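USER: My hope is that you can spare some time for a protein that puzzles me. I am handing you a single protein, as its sequence and its fold in token form. Walk me, if you will, through where the backbone shape changes along the chain. The protein I mean follows directly.
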Amino acid sequence: MTVIREDDVIDSVADALQYISYYHSPDFIRAMGRAYELEQSPAARDAIAQILTNSRLCALGHRPICQDTGIVVVFLRVGMDVRWEGSRTPEAMIQEGVRRAYRNRDNPLRASIVADPAFTRVNTRDNTPAVVHTEIVPGDRVEITVAAKGGGSENKAMFEMLNPSDNVADWVIERVPEMGAGWCPPGMLGIGIGGSAEMALLLAKRALMEPIDIAELAARGPRTKLEALRLEVYRRVNELGIGAQGLGGLTTVLDVKVLDYPTHAASLPVAVIPNCAATRHLHFTLDGSGPARLEPPSLDLWPDVAWTADASAQRVDLDGLTRDTVARWKAGDRLLLSGKLLTGRDAAHKRICALLDEGKPLPAGLDFQGRVIYYVGPVDPVGPEVVGPAGPTTANRMDRFTETMLGRAGLLAMVGKAERGAQAIETIKQHRSAYLIAVGGAAYLVANAIRSSRVVAFPELGMEAVYEFEVRDMPVTVAVTSDGESVHAEGPQRWRGQFAGFPIVAQ
């Protein structure tokens, strides 16, 4: 009988979460490198270059790939012949591992988990509790798969009870455009088919833990109907032309994974869950000999890609920004922002708009008039950093506040990721404002453009406080112009159907 020690589980989980915070897996690096080589859309190619450059910087600097270091999901498979040594339950061991990983002094990870989710939403401060799925299996080993799932991609999960005669591929293709770009493509799709409602979603999540191998599958050809379904969905999703960050391009998904389970004769439950460009998961086995040994990937795995600003990029002085300058921006223009901007996410927006609606003043020193806001919740800094990784959050969560922020607070422009809703675009047009996007999945690269940081308001909100950043040459793209033109509408339309027949070359 194998004895699994408590400390080995705790140390292994903590080490794994640190590991995946700054190392992409080799299969992901190869797939993203290949997508970069094949991409023909200049905007999408630039975004992928930022993601790859960011990935290598994080591997070298041991800093998070994305500022959203995720909700931890653990799949625990316990052998029936295992004996535990320690005072904690296996789930409590995992929670302690999460706590230690996210409080690591050398590489603190952002605490994003809130308790009392329907009401007070108070941050737990250490990213616990993780979501743990436990299975008892034959054997004398403990297998653990650890994942850190970002909120932007998790929020795009979809589920439906189809009729048994419905076509699963058709349903997925209808759903993917509804996801928009908030899940930070290119990434993966996990599809779960069958079982019960909750089983379909669990299958979709489990599927995302499998390695990327679509190129090898395409080269040898499908051997099962599920493999044929993978290839069909992969081709049809990429034919949509959504592309990297929703800018339009050839690669929207790097792979599609499908798992199924027997279901009721009257049912066809189907779920799809995307994984973003900050795909983070790791599998290891404990055999009683000690904690898991995690070998760093070779830096030779990364393609020779070093992002630099496009020669056509316009430099913008935020401290002297005018509405006339904003009006000259065109959809797809690349900008390099320098000067001071404010930050804010959901919680800060809710407080600010409540104060304005009640006719109350904003906190001392908080003035949005003629300013630009960046939707971000950064990681805490370490060493000489002024701020940790600070990539954009999904902008359409702030759509409900846009009229107040533009009309009453006096904002001039906004920076986030992914598309805005129709009403928000109309509001931007009415106020002759603009919406810009930074690349999701390039948080450390973006943070390198931030030269100073200070909290301006609501410090008790932690990462959701309002900061003032001073930036130098922060790369962004004009996504919505003052005329209401949207790159997220035009880009995919331009590239729709161009993936058709594109060769898949095995690695």
In short: The chain has three domains: 1-24+65-149, 150-286, 314-492. DSSP finds 15 helices and 19 strands in the chain. The mean pLDDT is 96.
